Amino acid sequence: MNISKRAKVIQPSITLGITAKANELKARGIDVVSFGAGEPDFDTPEFIKNVAIEDLNKGVTKYTAERGTPDLLKAVCETLERDYGLTYDTSQVMVSVGGKHSLFNTFFCMVNDGDGVIIPSPYWVSYPEQVRACGGVAVIAACPPESGFKMTPELLRSKITPRTVALVLNSPSNPTGSVYTKDELLAIGRVLEENPHVNLITDDLYQKLVYAPAEFHSLPAMMPSLLPRTIIINGWSKAFSMTGWRLGWAAGPKDFMKACANLQGQSTSNVTTFTQRAAAVALRDNQSFMKPWLEKFNARRKMIVDGLNAIDGIRCPEPLGAFYAFPDVSGCFGKKVNGREIKDSMTFAEIMLEEAKVAVVPGAAFGENRCARLSYATKDETIAKGLQRLAEALRK
Ligand SMILES: Cc1ncc(COP(=O)(O)O)c(C=O)c1O
């Protein structure tokens, strides 16, 4: 069967091989410690689930407007007001099947063939693939561990060409957990001000997962001159532990969001109807349930960073947000574990899985071959066991 050029450029996820292998070992009854999860290990709060159950039972099961119900869109606008201090109209927002879908709609409606989208690396795996699927060029800007994995004004300037259509910013970051300061963002914003043809896409999925004294800052909120060319992406997955609900939102200029709504109206249509009131209730809640979650994540963060730094050959910077540690494991390259040499992040992950029964995600999946990603959205005991196994294997 013929496969389109557009489909052919999309790469399978590097992480799939490791995940498949981990699952295979688990199926054979082998106790594998997994640091792979990209989702909180908490259940969705009861009060949110109950609204969806109630609506399902009431028969709220028909189509809605493609962007979402007017009330849900209003709740997104209230969130923009409360969490960003930004005033948006419901004609400027849309709810889609996850932040991932909001991003895809954005790239599809923004990128013409051959346009460049600047993606700071390490990056979340789907950005380059989505850009390429939309006919664009993923312009990777390497932000090494030494730079705190962050884009600088100089690096950004060096990557901008007349064909650049957008910059993607993700703070807190998946996979690095790095969080941009106010000044760092403003410096990037000034480069964007000098280059009015470059749009800004801010992926704020981890906005609520920041560890004091670090704080979340929104560049467009601090620099409103950028708003006419900014798309803000956010959602429910990480903050509300609602990954499986598949809900995300985007906010941007009215004409752009209309184009996104046309696309969504002709592709997926609305998100699941009986999730929409529950999603609005989640946004409007005082969200006090997040505090204990954050405290738990914070304790685990300290545990994993300290544990990793105690292992010879691993150097783990302190992540300030999200729930990932992204240690530099290149100090282990050249080491042999049971006769097998660690050469790069892929072999590190393979050998740790097979020899230590610990699943980590190779940094190569995120564009940084010296590192590995460990999610600490898992039980304390699991973290302790995994760290012990890694230390033991690397001591051999
Ligand atoms: C940085 C980042 N952006 C977007 C997403 C998409 O999340 P979802 O589609 O579940 O809302 C993820 C999920 O892992 C992510 O890590």
Q: In words, what does this structure look like?
A:
The mean pLDDT is 96. The chain starts with a helix and ends with a helix. The strands form 4 sheets. It has a 7-stranded mixed sheet with strand order 2-8-7-6-5-3-4, sandwiched between helices. The radius of gyration is 21 Å and the shape is globular. The longest helix is centred in the last third of the chain and has 20 residues, at 290-309. α3 packs antiparallel against α11 and α5 crosses α10 (254-266). 40% of the residues lie in helices and 14% in strands. The chain has 396 residues and is α/β, with parallel strands linked by helices. It folds into 2 domains: 5-30 and 289-395, Aspartate Aminotransferase, domain 1 (Alpha-Beta Complex); 47-284, Aspartate Aminotransferase, domain 2 (3-Layer(aba) Sandwich), CATH 3.40.640.10. α9 (219-222) links the parallel β6 (199-203) and β7. The structure holds pyridoxal-5'-phosphate (PLP). Pyridoxal-5'-phosphate binds at residues 38, 98-100, 124, 170, 174, 203, 205, 235, 237, 243, 248.
> Counting H and I runs of at least 4 residues, what is the number of helices?
14
Low-confidence stretches: none
Which structural class fits the helix and strand makeup? Answer: alpha/beta
Give the distance, in angstroms, between the N- and C-terminal Cα atoms. 49 Å
| Integer-rounded radius of gyration | 21 Å
Helical content band: 40-55%
Major sheet: arrangement of strands: 2-8-7-6-5-3-4
Q: Could you state the oligomeric state of the chains shown?
A: single chain
What would you say the CATH architecture of the largest domain is? Answer: 3-Layer(aba) Sandwich
CATH class bucket of the largest domain: Alpha Beta
| Sheet having the most strands | 7 strands, mixed
Mean pLDDT: 96
Strand segment count = 14
Number of domains: 2
